Amino acid sequence: MLRIMRFSGLFSVLLAIIVLSPSLQSFPPAEAIRSSHLRFPTSPPRFSFRRAPLLRNAADCAAIDIDSGVCNPSLVHVAITLDFEYLRGSIAAVNSILQHSSCPESVFFHFLVSEPDLESVVRSTFPELKFKVYYFDPEIVRTLISTSVRQALEQPLNYARNYLADLLEPCVRRVIYLDSDLIVVDDIAKLWRTRLGSKTIGAPEYCRANFTKYFTPAFWSSERFSAAAFGGRSPCYFNTGVMVMDLERWRRVGYTEAIEKWMEVQKSDRIYELGSLPPFLLVFAGDVAPIEHRWNQHGLGGDNVKGSCRDLHPGPVSLLHWSGSGKPWFRLDSRRPCPLDSLWAPYDLYGHLR
Questions:
Q1: Rounded CA gap, 80 and 129, in Å?
Q2: Which end of the chain is less congested by CB atoms within 10 angstroms, N or C?
């Protein structure tokens, strides 16, 4: 708990400096997806991360039965993708979650991968972490993916979240999905306790955002498309990088197939430009359980082209998200960081093997 308090204090000081200083504000079956015997085509680059500090549960945390595994009802489930380009971000995200959790031993991580040898990196960095690695076959979505405004948005692993209900064990009824380019600076258990009610997903919504820009004129001019989308709801933008997902309801309704159908429409009619987000919006926008904006201070990576520096949104902060093209580890390494990148740096455990 002492280490958690120290990290929280450090974050608060850094955040106060940045905010107060004007100069710094600028359907395939699950078996096919889970296949563990598939061979990877390339040899991975070599990485090394410093070992994370060992953290224990507070006295008031629920007891964890070691033998119960992933099905323990006391666990908080978090899903994150792992790939070589964003591995440094994923490791920092995990580190931040553990540092600020009152019950770090009660968090179970589900890592989605399409590349080899990443499990060993996680295990050496977090020796006592509760986690499992799931292989996501890129071929499942490769023929469904369309070109986007940024090539990074076309990577098949971006679409793995659409298949979480198939990938994860049936006993996992709920999961928090997080992107790799963020840090959590609050207790993840608070987000876990989000009440979804009758909704399948929960996320911070932004109803003042210009929703029309996420789809092409061809979409809005077609009554066939606009009538089929949103189910008569009033849609609001939400960022899919932070979601609480009811996997039990997802499986029952079959939302993976619904998303795939819109991706098929996109291949023939070009109804959007922005990667994996629009089909998610088409299925869920206007039908999302609201979560406080503090849980996704997004856009810190700037836009999808220039990646310019951005400020925090007004209000409290529980999660900082470098969505956009600018990533803090790249900017820090190039010695051209944005002011808010200094808040990410304390959670970075990366170092090259020599």
A1: 14
A2: C
Contact residues for 161 (Cβ-Cβ < 8 A; gap 6+): 79, 81, 112, 177, 240, 243, 276
Alpha-carbon gap, residue 158 to 138, rounded angstroms: 10
* Strands (DSSP E) found in the chain: 48-49, 76-82, 107-113, 130-135, 174-178, 182-184, 201-203, 205-206, 237-238, 242-246, 289-290, 319-321, 350-351
pLDDT in tens, 287-321: 999 999 999 999 999 976 676 899 998 899 999 99
**Calpha distance 105→182 (Å, rounded):** 21
3-class secondary-structure state, position 175 = strand
The mean per-residue pLDDT over the stretch 76-100 comes to 97
- Whole-number Å distance between alpha carbons of 106 and 236: 33
Name the residue with higher pLDDT: 278 or 164: 164
Q: How confident is the model at residue 48 (pLDDT cuts 50, 70, 90)?
A: confident
The whole-angstrom separation of Cα 24 and Cα 36 is: 47
**CA separation for the pair 304, 73 (Å, rounded):** 39
Confidence of residue 15 (pLDDT cuts 50, 70, 90): low
Identify the three-state secondary structure at position 297.
strand
pTM of the model: 0.86
Q: Hey, is 79 helix, strand or coil?
A: strand
**Which of 234, 215, 213, 218 is closest to 303 using CA atoms?**
213
Mean pLDDT of 137-156: 76
DSSP state of 246: E
